[in-house]
Amino acid sequence: MTQHHPDSHSLMEFSAGNLSDPHALCIRLHLDQCPHCRSRVDTLDSLGAIMLEDQPGAGVADDAFDRLLSRIDSEPAEPEPKHRAGDPLHRLLGEDLNALPWKRQLADVSVLDISHLFPGQPEKVVLQKLAAGGKAPAHTHRGLETTIVLQGAFTDHKGVFNQWDFVVLDEHDEHRPIALEGDDCITLSVLSAPLKLTGTFTRLLNPFIR
After folding, report:
1. Residues in domain ChrR-like cupin (predicted)?
2. What's the CA gap between 83 and 74, in Å, rounded?
3. CA–centroid distance for 133 within its chain
């Protein structure tokens, strides 16, 4: 079961269709596996439809959104669906994430830049694979990094992130992800700017990171 979710603002932007394609993909993948967030987006869609209705003089109370989300939180969630081969990620990349043409970046880290699949988008979109039990280099971020876990799990100072968990990091976050034993941890990340390595030796690689 997912434990880390998009915040309310991100779900509102998704419902309104205001997100870039890569960010929308990350949230869509999370929604496919998280009934709690799906219910929130369904409510936002309904609220948006009400607000767009041509009813002169009609309005929506300032606290309507908060009250609706509160009601959703108290309702039982439907069972989580299993991963579907027809989801947007598989349509983009195929069935087997492990069989992709990964490029080894560091000892435990491999990457695959898929930004070309999102032409015209300003962000960098990358798949990252951290070997089971392996450690990523300590780093922070020069901008926003939105990440969803596609396979396996990792842990950092904020806790454990399992499959389909969602996380957003910025320049205030410094972490060193460690993959849990078992499966390699594969994530999909959308970066508005390159990350910044902070380790004693790895920081020397910063000039080569794009």
Report:
1. 97-188
2. 26
3. 22
How far apart are alpha carbons 210 and 196 in whole angstroms?
A: 10
Say what the pLDDT of residue 58 is. Answer: 47
Per the prediction, the chain carries an average pLDDT of 80
- Residue 148 pairs in a beta bridge with 166, 188
Question: From residue 131, how far is each of 59, 73, 75, 116, 144 by CA, in Å?
Answer: 53, 36, 38, 25, 24
* Whole-prediction pTM: 0.77
Q: How far apart are CA 46 and CA 88, in angstroms?
A: 24
Q: How many CB atoms lie within 10 A of CB 85?
A: 9
**pLDDT value at residue 64:** 52
pLDDT (tens digit, 9 = 90+) per residue, 131-158? 999 998 887 878 889 999 999 999 988 8
Cα separations (Å) of 189 from 27, 31, 132, 144, 192?
11, 16, 18, 10, 10
Contact 151, 137 (CB under 8 A): no
Tokens of 4: 């880390």
159: exposed, middle or buried (Cβ count in 10 Å: 0-12, 13-18, 19+): exposed
Percent of the chain with pLDDT over 70: 75
